[in-house]
Structure formats: structure tokens, C-alpha cells
Amino acid sequence: MRIGLIVNPVAGLGGAAGLKGSDGTEVQREALARGATARAGERAAAAVRALLAARPDATVVTVPGAMGETAARAGGAEPELAAFAPGEPSSAGDTRAAVRALAAVDVMLFAGGDGTARDVLDAEPGGPVLGIPAGVKVYSGCFAVGPAAAGLAAAEFAGNTTEAEVVDLDEQAYREGRVSPRLYGTLTVPAARVRLSGRKTGSTTAAPATVEGIAREVVARMRPGVRYILGPGSTTRAVGRALGSEGTLLGVDVIADGVPIGIDVSERALLDLVDGHEVAAVVSVIGGQGFVLGRGNQQISPRVLARVRELTVLATREKLAALGGRPLLADTGDPATDARLGGYVRVVTGYRESVPYRIVPASEESVG
User: pLDDT (tens digit, 9 = 90+) per residue, 24-38?
Assistant: First the structure.
């Protein structure tokens, strides 16, 4: 079995920095200035480790340097290198060229986000591909639920495929609070249902009163002296509005004693705001996928979560029902943190309404 590997080295760089994306050299420089570190290579290495644990005979075929070789070796592979030299730093054109250089593989894994998926689509791969989620936002359906799931799906591939959508959005508009995902096409992926994250779906058509009821319930539960982290999303934003604060739709805010003390903060700023205080986090569920951590809210990092003593999850009953019984997912990038978060949590679904629901680490072998 020959498995291709391509890594976008800067994918996800803007997540913990609160920049809502990583496209463009200016954004990348700002992310680094805010203390962000690139994690795409680590996530690709985790996928390689899972692949080789299941298929020790697999050959990893990749390109030199940070676009693949470094992660492959970190994952325990002795990779076969294609005759291709990416630029430094690498570009979208390098991703497309790498896809063409790795055409003769059984499955091609790529580590990145939705923008990387678009580059892979543009290169017109001749066989099945699968994304290792490493971006800030991962709306497309062509990604595995986590790095290990990507490696296992490749190891288990027996020829059955399906089509998965590639979706992306304008990052500048996203930073301004305008979310307008666009469908660009489909990619052929291994038919491994429990390994695939599926495409993010839009908010349900729940009545505004339902979201307002959820917000009222959260506010009623707030305790004096506790610093509350509010994750992105329209439901969590309603909590801020119930307290008289507009807050941000796509950023992370901090509330203390009913007053906003941090709006649209980075991981570094978040750590400063919660250090030495009792901390609770309020997050919502990504529709269609079930993620509560690790997608679009990387500011709430493992370092931040180590200080959180209370996690509140918000979702309408319609959003939970649309998951079809699949669990909620945590993919923080730290398996120990994901494991600690695993188990049952009460999901607030309305005023004085909640239901128990299971959270599992995205690194588990099966999350179906």
C-alpha cells in the first residue's frame, strides 16, 4: 500500500491567535507575533503513526521538507520522496504541484483546512484523497474527524469510495462576521463513514425564542466571581446579548460578573484573563459535525482548558437530533485533554431544559 502525504505547514496558524484563518503572509506574521505555533506537521505525524500502527507495510510517499517529509519521519516512516522541490515558504501552487507529483498512490492524505482542500481539488487528483484536519475552520466533508482517523481510514482502504464536498469561505468576510460558505466541488474519498467528519451544516431554523431561552438558562446559572469563556457561534453570542453585550459572533469573549472583560481574544490574552480565577467555558455544537472543541475555537486550547472547571455545551434539540445519535467530538490537539473531556455532559437546549449527551475524543478509533 502506497499512501501519499502533503502538509500545508501554516494551516491553522491563525486559530489560537484569534485571527479566524491563516491565509496570507500578513496574517501569518501576526499569528506568530501573538504567540501562535504551527501544528499541521504534528497532526500529520499523528496520522502517519496511526497508519503505520495498522499497516506497518505501508509506504509513505511525500515531498521534501515541511510539506511532508518532516511529518512523515516524525510519525515513524522512512518516506519515499517525489522528485519535487517546494518553495520556502510553500504556496498554494506548491500544494497543487505536490498533488500531481504524488499521483501514483492508493490514497493521498493532506493536512490543512478548507483552503488546502480547494488547492487539492484544483489539482484534479486521479484517486481518493482524505484531509487531516489542521485548519482553523474545517467546513468541508472531505476531512477525517481527526488525525488518527485519517491514518486509520487510509490503512483500512479497500477500494470503496464516496464523494465529499469541498466548501470554503472568504476569510476577510469571515473576520468581519459574515459567514457565507461556498461549494467548490467534490473530492473522491474512502468510504469510511465513522472516520469522516461530514460537511458543516448551517444553523437550524429553530425559533429565536429557543436560542433566547438557552441564553437565559446560561445566565441564570452564572455565579459571582467566575470568569466565563464564551466560544464562537450565534447561540453563545445570545448569552452575551442577554447580559447586554454585543460580543463577537466568531471570536472568543470573556465575561465576569455579567460584564465583558475580553472581546475576541487570542489564546495568549485568554490565558492572562483567566489565570488565578475560577473558570467556566460555554461552547456550542457545530451543526452536522458535532464538534464542540477544536474547530473554530482553538483559542480555547489545552492550556486554557486545564484551568476550566466547568464546561457548558449549548445546542438546540434540532441540532442534536440532526446528529442521528452520533456523539459530540473534542479535537483540541492534545489526546490527554480530549480524554479528560470525554464522557457525558448536560447540553442546555432551552430555558430550564437540558439533556445528557456523550462527548468522545476525535482520536478514538471509532466515534460512530
Answer: 677 666 666 776 677
